[in-house]
Design brief:
alpha+beta, 4 strands, about 90 residues
Length: about 90
């Protein structure tokens, strides 16, 4: 049986931004990011690896809901953050 855990954090973007796996421009604002991690078995100490990263985003205009949770790559997210920081300095 694999043990999993979820971590939640809020990331703030000061400018509209893009995430490669999301086909639309996302507005500036605070976004909840959920990272699921699973325990690596067979080690003598507890260690976890990332299994999935999801982000709550405003729903696409064609949807009737106000928000949707989209699976994203952790690298996509880490690439978007410095771009936002650089735009803030300009």
């Amino acid at each position: 049986m694999t043990m999993t855990r979820s971590r939640r954090e809020t990331i703030v973007f000061k400018h509209p931004f893009r995430i490669a796996s999301i086909e639309r421009l996302l507005p500036a604002g605070a976004y909840e990011v959920v990272t699921d991690e699973e325990m690596i078995e067979g080690l003598s100490f507890p260690s976890f690896r990332r299994a999935a990263t999801m982000m709550m985003v405003p729903a696409a205009p064609s949807r009737s809901s106000s928000a949707e949770m989209i699976s994203i790559g952790s690298i996509e997210l880490s690439d978007a953050q410095p771009i936002d920081a650089i735009a803030s300095r300009e």
